Amino acid sequence: DRGGFKHFMLKEIHEQPRAIADTLEGRISEGRVLPAAFGVTAEARFADVARIQIVACGTSYHAGMVARYWFEDILGLPTSVEVSSEFHYRNPVVSRDTLLVMLSQSGETADTLAALRMVRSRHPDVPVLAICNAPESSLVRESDLVLMTHAGPEISVASTKAFSTQLVSLALLLLAMGRVQGTLSEEIERRIVAGLEKIPALAQAALTHDSAILALAERLVDKQHALFLGRGVMFPIALEGALKLKEISYIHAEGYPAGELKHGPLALIDENMPVITIAPQNDLLEKLKSNMAEVAARGAELFVFADERTALASEERLHVLPVTSHVGRISAPIIFNIPLQLLAYHVAVLKGTDVDQPRNLAKSVTVE
Ligand code: M6R
């Protein structure tokens, strides 16, 4: 049931405020996360963790990339993230003090399960945490610890609310880990919790920019290529924005860390290459602005997803869309991703593709 929406994808995009609230529900009490939300043995297992290894595919992998910025920046906890198909076909070093975190909406992704089983057979002592949306899945059954994302069923092949709720779950993991290990002051913990509780309302507000995003989509629909740029925690959001666009509209899209421009992709830039940037008002904005000047000087049309404080104004071929009010370190990637989902959606609808069932793709990739 599409609930009055034209596509499941649009319905699921709009379900995000509720899905995020549901994922937080019951996991926080009196401003503090409950480590037992991860399972009764979580507290004991988290105590000895010295590093985190995240393994996932596709959109779930992008959520893991965001988490790496958070864990290292806020907790100082060494964190690696790798796509499952690479991880399980090499000989990764997994030390006993690692927490293996498997991210998967479906819990049935073949490569992710293979990676889990590989670690299990070689390193039976390493604890495995599944962050998953499907309670009956193989991944959940085979893991030691589980945190369910409460996104509800995701039907559209393009993953949207699963990503947002994975990020919220990873933020809960950060809080639990920081609490158990004593690496997070009570004040910062309370501040992060307060920030998490504001996300459903911020997500709701981000959805109100739909008609402005449709206007941008109209400018993209005839393009062959698009380049998404971000820095810091917005780099994985650039990758995710590009994945969403290519997956459902079939426009060739790439995500790049903005600082890599001069190392290759700048050669692609001309008036036919639209550039989409994710530009919150943070300490990386000045750097990003000089990257935007570089592409603008070569004729690219720029689409800037900004926040209301971002000091930038629209010009002829520079479209600045403020999509949110003040956002924090944790909420920013979750919120900025939502307009990119809508952008991909509108481009696909304008092109007339099969939005919920893009060609060649399956919802759950159960074979390698
Ligand atoms: O079920 P999973 O989270 O393990 O799926 C991983 C990817 O197959 C999935 O995120 C895929 O990239 C989506 N179609 C992206 O929208």
TrEMBL record:
Domain spans labelled SIS: 42-183, 216-358
Function as written in the Swiss-Prot or TrEMBL entry: Catalyzes the first step in hexosamine metabolism, converting fructose-6P into glucosamine-6P using glutamine as a nitrogen source.
Molecular function terms, GO-annotated: carbohydrate derivative binding; glutamine-fructose-6-phosphate transaminase (isomerizing) activity
Keyword Lipid metabolism: no
Compartment(s) of residence: Cytoplasm
Record-level GO BP terms: amino sugar biosynthetic process; carbohydrate metabolic process; fructose 6-phosphate metabolic process; protein N-linked glycosylation; UDP-N-acetylglucosamine metabolic process
EC number: 2.6.1.16
Residues of the active site: K363
Sorted UniProt keywords: Aminotransferase, Cytoplasm, Glutamine amidotransferase, Repeat, Transferase
Assembly behavior: Homodimer.
Protein name per UniProt: Glutamine--fructose-6-phosphate aminotransferase [isomerizing]
Keyword Phosphoprotein (UniProt): no
GO cellular component terms attached to this protein's record: cytosol
Catalytic reactions of this protein: D-fructose 6-phosphate + L-glutamine = D-glucosamine 6-phosphate + L-glutamate
Source organism per UniProt: Halothiobacillus diazotrophicus
Source species, domain of life: Bacteria
Upper lineage: Bacteria, Pseudomonadati, Pseudomonadota, Gammaproteobacteria, Chromatiales
